[in-house]
Queue: 3 jobs
Job 1
Amino acid sequence: MPAPRPAQATAPAADAPSQRVEITGGRESDAEQRRQSTAARIVIGREEIDKFGDATIGEVLRRLPGVTPPAGPPGRGGPPRMRGLGGGYTQLLIDGQRVPPGFSLDQLTPEQVERIEILRAPTAETGARAIAGTINIVTREGFKRRLNDLRVGTGYENGGFTPGISWTRNDSIDDFIYNVSLSVFRPHRISTGTTDTTVTDLASGALLGAERSEARTEERRSGVALTTRLQWRLGTSGDSLVLSPTMFHSEGRIERRFTLAQSVPPAPALPLYDFGQGSTESRFTNLRVNGQWRQRLGSSGPRLELGGYVGRWSSASDTLRDEFRSGQAAPLRSTDDIARTRESSVNLTAKLSGLAGTQPGREHSLVGGAELEGVKRRETRTLTENGLPQLADFGDEFEATTLRTAAYLQDEWAVNPNWSLHAGLRWEGIRTQGDAGTAGDRPTNRSSVWTPLVHVLWKPDPKKRDQLRLSLTRSYRSPGTQALIARPGINGRFPASGPNDPTSPDSAGNPNLKPELATGLDLALERYLDGGGVLSANVFHRNISNLMRSVTTLETVSWSPVPRWVSRQQNIGDAVTQGIELEAKYRLDQLIAGAPRVEMRHNLALFRSRVDGVPGPDNRLDQQARGTANLGADYRLRGLPFTLGGNLNWVPGYRTQLAADRAVTVNTRRVWDGFVLWTVSPALGVRLLGSNLDPRDSLSTTEFDYAILPATALRRETAASNSPSYVNWQLRFEIRL
């Protein structure tokens, strides 16, 4: 209590105004976190994640700057891509840990996510397996405010309903804070597709074969996703213990009906089917427990963080396929493919961080750490054709182990109010060993990479909100276990007893693969607007060596009496990719005085790439479109409890020359989304969301030039596939209890 006033103190004037000082605290805004980060980082918080009311986190990602949606019909899932690069170029993390194989982001709902961080260039701490960039999804964190949200709804697409329910609860008891997010979903999807295949003689242009295949697929699946965060605060210096158990489980059944009509049978004619049916029953379970202990060493000493996880995932599938000829009751061919996969992993991390300088405005911190990860994978697969086992020489069991070790040192230094420097050095080594399928053969692949990293931030005038970023980095892409040592896979369309088609090859691993290495340059100019919002322009360049690509060749194989076309990953040479990324986020009244307070979000990215050793034109990186763009806006009507919003996603069509004898062409995609939110009360909202409002077919064409034998004439096989897309409607009730 303050000391009593002396008796002679003068009383305050009666008319002196009283003053009230209010101090509030909280996390920095998304824009401020992005602005203060020396390494280029885009932060997407809860408000923007909830904006459209998407059903899955994958739908949220496709509208973010520099993120390209996966190829194929809109809304059908698949991993997101940064800078148009697929196939493992984008590092996907959940709470800083790599996403396990087989896990789909469609199993994670937006209600379970606290924020999304997009790093355009790697850092030593987050890892360098990110040639295109890193997407880190941070699950809901514990905070003091009590939260109890319930969301119930359903989706509808092409005759199939997808009901779902999600619940999030957050509360605290003294120094213990917990967060629980649970979602249950049951998707039902129906899709169709047609493929027209022709074979022509390149010299004469004569038509040697023509056929059409049609397919209808119906998928019913159910799943549950549970994420939790249990946090104990240990003292007042920020010490804490956090445990985060997570569980994802899904199971379902896929029914297929297909036909094949050969208007011009190939010569020699193959004994193919006229129609058929198939089914796949599958299930996937992923369990993981993350842990982190943070402790300050001394009252003002460095901070020690020990963490890691223990995880296990398993998948099982049973695929039956029966092929028939018209007029015959017995199937021409029946196959049964039973697969079981189990993978266990352990990860341990240690990090020590502390200040190396404490001058005001010149913070200088050092971070060092080490990581150790072990993965053991076991597969059991049985393939039979007409009751006879296939690939008998390779056995039914397949085992693989991976050991990854890493160490890094990172220096973050605010040199002065104008300059900030972020420098790091990371070493990472990976050792993979597994069965090749034959007795006594256990191929081993070892690789290690040094990745130096430098990020510079320059503020010409610290009192203003303009800044320039520069990043010089090295990153890499490591081959997956399946690409290294996978046992052969027989294409289901052509029996192993005879030849197959170059557009329907078998698959096999390559234990001699080397990781891709990339040297990168990123340069960004950012302007942060008063009252919120940001304008930015970013250019990037990557030189890639040891490029990995699937190469299809005719091989003499042990699993067939005749040569078969086989696809394997191979290092084919060097490549270059570059581009520009533009982003604008603002309110309309910030540009036009008196305009409505419409929230505007635009981004445009243009890409170019070139693969050395592949003849042009169009010798670009596989699956990289020429660009991507989003145009979005939302507005809360004045005086009315309604919020309206919409977004247009555009990806132009492109052609890729994969090799001298193979090319792929993909058509343009335009996806319109819109939503209406009715805020009935502070505790209840009703949302109607329409995705892909102008549905368009997804078209792709593959061309392959080949000769049946080295001395025979060249042929060109052209396969044109058409997959229709559909409008997806979602109705959801958002309840705060």
Job 2
Amino acid sequence: MVKKFLFLIPLSLFLCSAHGVGLDADAPKTITADKIEYDLGSKSIKTTGTTTITNQTGQNVTLVDAYIGDRNISASGSRVVLYLSRNTRITAASIEKDGDITTALEPTYTTCANCGDKIEAWNLSASSLTHDSTAREMIFYDPVLWIYDVPVFWFPQISYPDPTVKYKSGFLFASFNSTNNMGMQINLPLYLNFSNYHDATITTSYLTRENPLWQAEHRLNLNHSSMLTKGSYTHNQAGVDRWHVFNKDRVDLGDNARAFLFLNRTSDKTYLQQYNFYGDQPYLDSGARLELFSRSGYATTEVHSFQELRVLHGNQTNPSGDILPNIHGVYQTEPVFGNTYFSFMGDVLGINKSGSSASQRLIGSGRIVSPWVLPLGQRLTLSASARYDVYNFINTPIYGAPGDFSGMRGRFLPSGYAEWSLPFIKPGTNWTHVIEPKVRFTVQRHLENPAFVNNDSAGSLLSDVMLFSDDRLAGYDLWANGHYADYGASWRAFSHDGWSSEVFLGQSYDFFAPTNLDPNSGFHYGASDYVGRIGLYSNDWLSILNRFRFDNEELELRHLESTVRFGAKDYAEAGYIRATQLTDTLAQNRVINEAVLGGGMSLTERLSVRARVIYNITDHNLQQQNIGLYYDHPCYTISLSYYKDGAIRIYQNGENYYGASRFGFQFALKLTEGNLTQDRDAQYFSRYETGEAYLKQR
């Protein structure tokens, strides 16, 4: 006869490693057995036959002829099968617990049970196992590692943290890859745990054609702050010290303030790319930032120091000096009448350039914005603003002044706009259509010399997203200079089953000749180029977007960006960029074309392939190519990758970079934790392709 009783049994009964995985010691447990005896004198429990003990979370242990002493000080049983989660299983011929020490004979341990395979991917067997609940450590004697039922490793003794230990210092799996003309690279990471919120990883990389490379990553996460530092160092065969440091710290200063510190530096311009730490950064930025924010406003104070990584052509580079400091603040009032509100902005910028050149800028501005909804659904927004700039120059070259200039300059910049739109909405059975014409007329002061310097703007390229914006030029130094109008119309449609589409066409009209703009910008004295976009989307499997710009007179295609993506898990994607480069407003230099092709496909339920190619059609040059084969098993992942970098960087000082091919191999175990009702798989892996190491070990 099967009997079922409810007892308060501590989790330490659950063999060696089940002690204390997230439940209180007096949480209720269910015991099912052929026969259960309870001794009132010794306060012990004895079961006969097959016994199953299940806790609240669904973890269960099955054993034969169990004995549980008073307060679980002693316990025993045979033919034990324990599930800590759906995939984590421990078996043993017998167990015996005496105080804090539990001993199991002929144990096996795996985190790959019930993975759907006929043969477990791996398990660890031993002649005996001892668990010390105080030290939270398991010791396997004569252990053998089995991979798909094949013995691959034996050692006299292995110690292993029990599942109550979240993090444990030790070596992690090695990874392999090839590097730029430096041969094979073997990465050996060592994980160091200081606490549950503080750890580090030190990686030694051996290269067959270069000296060793050392990498380090330090992580600290507190309740109101976080710190992350990554770095590397090598003394190469040419006798040169090469290194990099990436650091970002955040500190919360109460509910309305926080601070950031960031340091990004490298020994030279090509080190990051050659050693595969490069992420397409045009320059490295170091400094600090303080943020203050409230319901109606915010303020920031920041300093920046830049390290240039680009190949320079003339002075077309930004930023062009260290920012010491930049203070920016914005405040917006509650509506004062209707929906009308005021906003105020202040900005202080200091620029230190090489030598004795420096400049400071002070901006103060105020704006009133009044949005209205008129009859027939018309929308009207009126706005007026006034801004005053004060500049202080120290040995600085400025527009309109011979040589370097020292002194003060100021300018008053009033402006305003009126924006009108009228959306026509037509609901349908399957689709809802919206047609909306929009016009904005902007009035601005026209200056003979609209800018003194350009420290914070890379100019402007006309696009569909720029129309109807408050500032058509990035930054504050450049001034749009004069009246202009934006006008266009859009059509949008939305279906009830997740489809949507859009079409937009627009143009800008300048009443004064634009100044200080790139000839490729698309702005002209009078009507600008035409810009627009066409898109079709499905939230499940399709995305198509085309953004374009046509010449305002000949309707020649000046710029085109096209992206297409089909599918989600299995997908195909394509992209195309076409840009016409002009040396002046009339002369055409050349057309630049670039194509992107990519995709991913599941070959089996677990095996997939992903690839991507970037090709410069104009120069007939392969910019970038990568392909990877990925096997995602419930217990581990394996990846094989190939990457080809076609970039060529020629610097005046000879620190040139020529792209090459790389191969990579990675293997990572998935260690599971949790319980049967809340099966949580914690996956920890190493990623070396981008120089980032997310290394954890349970």
Job 3
Amino acid sequence: MSLPRPVSDTLIDLLKPIAQTLGERLGATATGQSFTDASSGALALRHQVKKDRRWIQAQIQFLQRQELRKQELRVITSVEKARAKEIKEEELRDRQEISKLCRELMRELQAEAIKVKLNEIQVIWDRDTWFSNLSRQETEQILQQQKHRLLLLVSPVKISKDCPESFIHNLNIELPAKLRSFLSQHYPQHSETCPVQFYGDYFKQPISDIDVERLQTILGPVPTAILYSDISDYEVNFHVGFWGMVNQNVSLVSIQAWNWEKVYEQLGANGQDDKVSLRIIRQIIVSIHKLLAGFLADLYYLSIDPNYEPQLDKLKSEFVQEWFAQEWVEPYIESLKVIQKQQQLTAEVELRRLADKENRAKFQRDILGETERKRKEKAQAEYNLQEQSISKVKIHNWQCVYTMPGHSSFVNSIAISPDGMILASGSWDRTIKLWNVKTGELITTLTGHSDRVNSVAISPDGMILASGSSDETIKLWNLSGGDLICTLPGHSIGVNSVAISPDGRMIASCGGSDHTIKLWNIATGKLLRTMQGHLDDVNAVIFSPDGKLLASGSSDATSKVWDVVTGELQRTLSGLNLGVNSIAISPDGQILASVRNDYTIKLRSLPTGRLMRILSNHQRRGNEVENSGREQALHILRNYVGRGNSVAISPDGLTLVSGSDDNNIKIWNMATGQLINNLKGHSGTVYSVAIAQDGKLLVSGSGDETIKIWRRD
């Protein structure tokens, strides 16, 4: 039986605007049109995934297989339809694997934020009595889920006592049950393309807007949508709350109130009895919830996956069967189609750019192969002569004298004062801690940053501490008292690194999506100049010992050297293959060390850019140096076991210290490339290392949330 025409028209007018509103908000992620801050949530995670070497490699391999399939399809005859079908199925499976990898990498990126929330849950639970209405166990289970998915919650409907008893007795039974059945059939949690984790009984009582914001303080790292409604004696109000789908902020959307009483009267006038009329209205309310749930799920997976095929277009018949006119669904389907087309176009452009980049790289490798072979032979001959005159560095034993717990997350950066008395540590827990180096005791904790602290640096006179944070600011502190001196606005999507010039007059900083380096006057806080040239995030900056040059390392797979006075680019050191995490300059200003994302450290001549040595974990046969692009190494170390995250050079310039994700600290002979020490003790990635000016003290910061002080014999 179809609904009376006036009833259908009323519902179309009710539902069409919400399709437009949600489509505009959530579609911003898919199309890259940031209507609000997108520094976190799905857009930021997707951006980070695109820079992951595993994602890049998967895309390159997909392009190669796709080209082979296209070539085969061009020569297939009409009688080989079966093979053509197989090729198309292979293409689909390939795209599904790419989508799966994307979700796995997004879950990996969320892991740290989830860990933080699990550690905070007791404090949050104790602070607000509202949480006693929820299940603590279910909340922890939601956070601990290992699979990336959309969490969808529905609240019990708030029903006025003046409503018919049919509503009071049945609606809160029907709504979660039918919504669960709908999602488990079309968006099941085990789905490989659109997993939705649904809870119909998570809330024990109806919720309001403020409750959605409360819940976000715990479930913030998990992309979540919440449906909640209230019914008076004559109208229904539908509400949607969500976060993590565009950014981490809570978005609240309300649908224009629906006058169910008028529909009830129209149904009665059309010959329906009271019981059937109320049942139809309840089914319409449930169907609207199902429509919103399906639309939200499709929007989310379109936002993170250009290969995703929305389900809603296939579900028209299901809604029609439940007193739901097919035309009610059309605005939602059209909105999804527009976003899907824009998403696919964007993905195709990105793939073409990657293909062009690969073709250029292959061309360079082909035409330069013979030249590189000759350069390699010459470099090896130079190295053999050099090795004959190198004196051996004295090998010292190092002992861990202090292990300092105190941070509640990764220790991302450390700095030692020039007099060797104070140690500063910056952490993802948003704090900076100052420690007594001689005793290992905590002096004070500096708070003020609202996001992770990525970098700390101490001025040459030991008076000022600078810190850079993901909250997009740089802060200057009085090192002796811990007082905040001033706050400088930083970079888009955070400040990755800060460095203080040898004369103590300037600060260099680098940041995220703006791809720039900035120089600041310490005394006035004034921005002196901005240097542009990198094509991706700038991860590290450091001044040369004479203060005339500034070196930078970036995710665009280059290091650059800049003139500090003019801001002009002096040279670009390419041939790095993958992004640069950390850099260091030797005390004589002759060597630049850069730590890459592909597990290696490269040593280059700072004045000329010539590659001198590669420190790598890759096992190679004999003494052969494999092709590494335009530059060839003189020597390769075979013992570097983990991914390099930090590097420092000793004050005498003879040794290099590196930290990595094998949880160890390695000490190398700079002249020979020999591994002379391997310090074990951390239980997590070593994110930061620093050496005191007397060369007798080494400090390390780790993902195990501790700092260790090492002294040499």
